[in-house]
Specification:
The chain is elongated. The mean pLDDT is 86. Helices cover 71% and strands 0% of the residues. The chain has helices at residues 2-27, 31-53, 58-65, 69-76, 85-94. It has 106 residues and is mainly alpha-helical. It has a single domain, classed as 434 Repressor (Amino-terminal Domain) (Orthogonal Bundle), CATH 1.10.260.
């Protein structure tokens, strides 16, 4: 019986640790910014992988998107969070993909 109680305490502590970081970031007022940067970083990584898989250069991607190479650089820059839906749409179409956006509960 003691092992079950100890195990329950360990699991309880483990599940709280993840939420503690979220709570900390929220208390500091940076949770939204951190989540936005994480999403942009994941998107930039996915786009870079698709460029590599399709053997496309940034210049070729820009031509497909009918935009500048600088715009592609901004799209692939994980620290640049000012990407528009229009630009994402162009990038998706250029790679034969589509955008899927979902509003999830906060």
């Amino acid at each position: 019986m003691k092992s079950e109680t100890l195990s329950a305490k360990i699991m309880s502590k483990r599940t709280r640790r993840g939420s503690d970081l979220r709570d900390f970031l929220k208390e500091q007022g940076v949770l939204d910014e951190v989540e936005e940067r994480a999403m942009k970083q994941a998107l930039a990584l996915q786009l870079a992988e698709l460029l590599k898989k399709n053997e496309l250069t940034k210049a070729e991607m820009a031509a497909r998107m009918k935009t500048s190479r600088a715009a592609v650089d901004r799209l692939l820059d994980a620290s640049n969070t000012s990407v528009t839906l229009a630009t994402l749409g162009k990038a998706a179409r250029a790679l034969g993909r589509k955008i899927k956006i979902e509003l999830a509960p906060a």
